[in-house]
Amino acid sequence: MAKKKGNKLANVRIEDGIAYVEIDVADRSVNTLSTPMVHRFEELLDSSLKDENVEGVVIHSAKPTNFIVGFDIEELQGYYEDPDALRDLAIRGHELMDHLAELDKPVVAAIHGQCLGGGLEVALACHARVAAQGSTFGLPEIMIGLIPGGGGTQRLPRLIDLSQALDMILTGRTIGDRKAKSLGLVDDLVHPGILLDVAAEKVRDLAQNGERSSSFASNLGDAFQDPVKLAARTPARKVIFDKARETAQKKSGGHYPALGHALDVIETGFSEGFDAGIRAETEAFVELVQSDVAKNLMKIFFMRQHVNKDHVIDRRFKPYEVDKIGVLGAGLMGAGIAQVAAYKGYDIRLKDRDADGLGWGLNYIHDLFGKLARRKKISDAEADVYFGRVSGTTDYSGFRTCDLVIEAVFESLELKQQILADVEALGNETQVFASNTSTIPIKDIAAEAKRPENVLGMHFFSPVYKMPLLEIIRTDETSPKALGAALNVGRKMGKTCIVVDDGPGFFTSRVIGAYINEAGWVLQEGARIEDIDRAMRDFGFPVGPLKLVDEVGIDVAQKAAGVLREAFSHRWDAPTALASLAEEGRKGRKNERGFYDYGGQGSHVPDETVYDALPGGRDRRRVDRELVQQRCWLAMLNECAYALQEDILRSPRDGDIGVIFGLGFPPFRGGIFRYADQVGIETVVDQMRRLADQFGDRLMPADILVEMATEGSTFYKD
Fold first, then answer.
1. Which of 42, 232, 266, 495 meets the CB 3.0–4.6 Å disulfide criterion with 470?
2. Peptide bond just before 463 cis, omega within 30 deg
3. How far apart are CA 422 and CA 399, in angstroms?
4. Cα(659)–Cα(671) distance, rounded to whole angstroms?
5. Domain 324-500 is classified in which CATH homologous superfamily?
6. Are the C-beta atoms of 675 and 669 separated by less than 8 Å?
7. 3-6 and 10-15: which strand pairing?
8. Given this structure, which CATH class describes domain 3-289?
């Protein structure tokens, strides 16, 4: 007969000799660890195992989509000013994990859905792990500037291949069920319907055999307590760590201290033993929680959550259901949109003007699904199913029945207007039409539309499968129905969506345009290509502005610059550098003629012939790195401020999400508006005025910045 005890965090029932500890944090869609949860865990384990009839424990979740997704970040924020209390919390957490690992009766984690952070650390401390198909696993703490704090830095590298463990810890990326099984992270992978039954059987097997399959104490043995024996078992360890350090430094530029701490802590555990590694983990965790980088990244985490939950439109409006999406244009962007949408369950009708263009797009989509299968994200059969959701055409057949049509063709107002007219002529009056334009105002595209209320912008970023942002642009006439449809589709596609008002370049394009524009001025004044790009990489951008132009296409950047220059001619002073290069036929990487050499020397080497088309020729001068950084980021900030001033942006929060997830602004700085707060608005205005006096009025601060400096106000109140 089952006996059950419970509260608002976790419950236990005992049935047929198995104690089922069910995690269920009340009033939350996900389970998180917390101080009360640690206490509750200990209480349930102790009470359950006192029962002589209990053979072992199964830990599982009552939530439909997750096991445990990590420690409660809000609680962590409460320890900013109290490192001693945080250290006590970390030690208490380690004691719980050790208690799990050292129990005389077997404990099995029955995992379904997301098993992340502290949740994975709980699972690692168990003696075995059984997972439902579709589960995902990860230690994402690095994404908020931290390292795993519940023993994950020590247990994961001892359970799976060291290189794979380092990859999970240092990147924060999640892995799927098949990958977890192949790595040995989980012992069994089963259908969700039999998860608890299989987990209970696993408990009985372990109890009867007198062993705990993945227990640190019993399976890994004393060899891991002995640094000499450990070193003997991992002869390539030093090479692996050295390579990991090199890669981490190259990717982070030294801006993310958690990466170095993680490597130090893991290496300590391997060289000095498990207990020493745990002590090192505790101290590093406490130090990192106090760091400005972690504080900024945690704020971004919550901002992104709020954006993802933002209703934007009145809740009274019933969502417009979208099942079938038409995509016009099978190039890199259109095919990318089609692939992600198909992956998320939509039926796709893809059109291009001819069979060659359509064939290229379909092959691109097929290759992307093939890569997912090779990486064990999906099976080969699933790849075929997903690809089967995409059908192609060179006319408009099948488009009338689409609920949403996304246009992703060349940046031509006339072409986009004609396509909109063609789609409206099909006669589906409820159909929503979205343009993927990056600069052309949506109201201009919809100027002659029969149903302008159904028209809006959905600006994706390339590559679509990788870039997390979607900028949704609404006009004065866009209906709540159309906006709601775009939001629902974007979020289902896994995108973080910001909603902005219409205007030339909307938000992201005009901001990145200002950034590139200032870099172009620095180049035209005689700076070297590599010095400009290196300065902004050192600032924290993933690539420099001139390398970015090569990737986007010099011709594309020049066309966008023309739109912005015309719209903001009263204050947008543009250099001739980009135009000169575009006139030479340089298009960047796509025709292997850009700022960089795409021949034998490699694409990281500047093409010196670029200087022949610029003032001063090849007689280049060195420039002050900090001055380049200041000019470029302040030009970017100024355009962000104008967008806020003109109500293109709804809030500084949306602007920071946009520049981080769409434009690569360094996350460790917290976002461009938050970074301006940290520098000080008065300081920012003073710097911009000095730069304007020296380099041009385009750098004069926007009125909103001047007003804020006068009032002593900030973009954020926290």
1. 495
2. yes
3. 10
4. 7
5. NAD(P)-binding Rossmann-like Domain (3.40.50.720)
6. yes
7. antiparallel
8. alpha beta
Are 564 and 505 in contact by the 8 Å Cβ rule? The answer is: yes
Query: Rounded CA gap, 524 and 575, in Å?
Result: 7
CA angle 613, 616, 617 (to 5 degrees): 45
In what order do the strands lie in the sheet containing 114-116? 66-68, 114-116, 136-138, 175-176
Q: What size, in residues, is the chain?
A: 718
Tokens of 681: 């608005």
- pLDDT tens-place string over residues 78-107: 998 899 999 999 999 999 999 889 988 999
CATH of 509-711, one of 2.30.40.10, 3.40.50.2300, 3.30.70.260, 1.10.1040.50: 1.10.1040.50
Give me the amino acid identity at 66.
N
The continuous run of DSSP H or E covering 610 comes out as none
The token pair that represents 556 in the structure block = 């594309």
Q: Give me the residues of the chain with pLDDT under 50, please.
A: 1-6, 213-233
Residue of 481, 624, 509, 665 lying closest to 572 (CA atoms): 509
10 Å CB burial of residue 271 (0-12, 13-18, 19+) is middle
Q: Which residues are catalytic?
A: 471
Query: Residues 376-399: pLDDT tens digits?
Result: 888 999 999 999 999 999 999 999
Q: How far apart, in whole angstroms, are the C-alpha atoms of residue 592 and residue 584?
A: 13
Collapsing DSSP to helix, strand or coil, 11 comes out as strand
Tell me how far apart the alpha carbons of residues 433 and 456 are, in angstroms, rounded to a whole number: 7
